[in-house]
Design goal:
Layout: E1 2-7, E2 12-19, E3 24-32, H1 48-65, E4 72-77, H2 79-83, H3 87-98, E5 102-104, H4 107-122, E6 128-134, E7 139-145, E8 148-155, H5 159-166, H6 174-188, E9 202-205, H7 208-219, H8 229-242, H9 255-275, E10 281-282, H10 287-299, H11 304-315, H12 320-336, H13 344-353, H14 366-376, H15 384-395, H16 411-428, E11 439-442, E12 446-450, H17 452-456, H18 461-474, E13 479-483
Parallel strand pairs: 1-4, 4-5, 6-9, 9-10, 12-13
Antiparallel strand pairs: 1-2, 2-3, 6-7, 7-8, 11-12
Helix pairs in contact: 1-3, 4-10, 5-9, 6-9, 7-9, 8-9, 12-13, 12-16, 13-15, 13-16, 14-15
Protein name: Ppx/GppA phosphatase family protein
Pfam family, one: Ppx-GppA_III
InterPro entries: ATPase_NBD, GppA/Ppx_hydrolase, Ppx_GppA_C, Ppx_GppA_N, PyroPPase_GppA_Ppx
Length: about 475
């Protein structure tokens, strides 16, 4: 069994699913409509009240998770925690409350996970499709064929911010709706061409907002009963007739959903106008199902992150032999250092494979260019935190260590940095080492026993070794090298 927790801008949601060999069946769901995006103040900070409501929800989710024997749990956060200026201060507290790490994922990664969830439900290998997801703080458009994603983009517009911007006082007028729709169109117009109907055969709406709008249309007999442009316009007309959010009275519409659905409808109408969509099919699948499938794939060693690293290294013309050699050496040295966190080994491996991507920018300072690229790249499967950790490892592969001094407070991270630096140094010195004949320790100080003839056979090795000792001693770590 797997669990996926989605910390969205409108709602916090939880799915627990059971894998049965060809599908994942949801056996438990939970939802708290906390409207986190509405808890951002004028300066972009989450208010104390908003954070407390969020923590209360996380505590409830933790109690639910505790009732199940779970293979893996993944907690992902989306747009509001991507943009909140005090997210870094809030996350450690939130992680302590729910009892699991919280991963802030990029909009593009959110889109990919949404598509994985939708594709797993449809099982149509050749269908060319567009998937739309309108969340509380962002909207994702994903183009794909079958299981394959061809294009994904995230836009900073969602149900909560659109409702607050145009219907903040609850008043619903035709003029406000016209402005809200026009605003929505402006977010999509430049990116629209690839998503127009000639590029796909079916359009699917995966978000709770889209499904709720479709259900309201059907239960109230609006338009042609489908999620069509005609039906959306009919629903807009009814909203304007009610005149205020508090007076909305439609079958199937929960009172707490009304406020955000008004803004969500404006976004959906704007999308359909700009992309030329006539009908959307709502589907009960999306981010949480995608997260659970991703967990299942990781458990079978089909990790999307491996492919992302391979594709990125190909794009930037990395020398695969050099990269693989550094990765193999670095991970072996890291194991020799006996870290308490074995999970860091995988990130060290990926970092080593990508450590020279910065050469595409410049030979000078290539490690700095590589660190920037990795931290800011769109890497499928990786979270912001994971890319940041890899970026710091890559930045620390050479030169002074003061630039990553804060990260080195973590003993295991220090061991990973040391392993990568030595692996890169051995590569540059052209030392073909036999790891069985090398000894490396790192406790209160670093101790390296290395064969004397390895040093003597490579003229630059002594220089590199001396420099490495100096760099570590500069930050207060003694580095003893013994030639055996």
């Amino acid at each position: 069994m797997f669990a996926a927790v989605d910390l969205g801008s409108n709602s916090f949601r939880l799915h627990i699913g059971k894998y049965n060999g060809d599908a994942i069946r949801v056996i438990k769901s939970a939802r708290d409509p906390i409207r986190l995006a509405a808890g951002l103040d004028s300066k972009g900070y989450l208010t104390e009240q908003a954070m407390q409501v969020a923590l209360d929800s996380l505590a409830r989710f933790r109690s639910i998770l505790a009732d199940y024997q779970l293979e893996a749990v993944r907690v992902v956060a989306t747009n509001t925690l991507r943009v909140a200026k005090n997210a870094a201060e809030f996350l450690p507290i939130a992680e302590q409350v729910i009892g699991y790490p919280i991963e802030i994922i990029s909009g593009e990664e959110e889109g990919r996970l949404i598509y994985m969830g939708v594709a797993s439900m449809l099982r149509l290998p050749n269908e060319k499709r567009l998937v739309l997801d309108i969340g509380g703080g962002s909207t994702e458009l994903i183009l794909g064929r079958g299981q394959q994603i061809e294009r994904v983009e995230s836009f900073g517009i969602g149900t909560v911010n659109q409702s607050l911007a145009f219907f903040a006082d609850g008043q619903i007028t035709a003029a406000a709706y016209d402005a809200a729709v026009l605003s929505a169109r402006s977010h999509f117009e430049d990116a629209a061409p690839p998503y127009r109907p000639q590029n796909w055969s079916h359009a699917y709406g995966s978000s709770g907002t889209i499904r709720a709008i479709a259900e309201t249309i059907d239960k109230n007999g609006l338009g042609d009963h489908r999620l069509s442009y005609t039906s959306l316009e009919a629903l807009r007309a009814r909203f304007v007739e009610f005149g205020h959010v508090s007076r909305i009275d439609l079958l199937g519409m929960k009172p707490e959903r009304a406020a955000v659905m008004v803004g969500g409808l404006a976004v959906l109408i704007g999308l359909m106008q700009e992309l030329g969509i006539e009908v959307i099919q709502p589907i009960e699948a999306g981010l949480r199902m995608g997260v659970m499938w991703d967990l299942q794939l990781r458990g079978t060693r089909l990790d999307r992150r491996d492919q992302a690293v391979h594709d990125f290294s190909q794009r930037f013309h990395v020398d695969q032999l050099r990269a693989s050699r550094v990765a193999e050496t670095a991970t072996s040295l890291f194991e020799m250092l006996k870290p308490s966190n074995d999970g860091l080994s995988q990130y060290l491996h990926w970092s080593a494979l990508l450590h020279e991507v910065g050469l595409v920018v410049s030979q000078s300072g290539y490690h700095k260019h590589a660190a920037y690229l990795i931290e800011n790249a769109d890497l499928s499967g990786f979270t912001t935190r994971e890319q940041r950790a890899m970026s710091m490892l890559i930045l620390g592969q050479k030169g002074n260590l003061r630039k990553i001094s804060d990260a080195l407070l973590d003993p295991d991270f220090s061991k990973a940095v040391l392993a990568l630096r030595l692996a890169v140094m051995f590569l540059h010195s052209r030392i073909e080492i036999d790891l069985d004949e090398l000894r490396l320790k790192m406790k209160s100080k670093i101790e390296l026993d290395i064969k004397r003839d390895w040093i003597e056979d490579h003229p630059t090795a002594t220089y590199w070794m001396t420099k490495e000792q100096d760099w570590w001693r500069e930050i207060g770590v003694d580095f003893a090298i013994r030639r055996t």
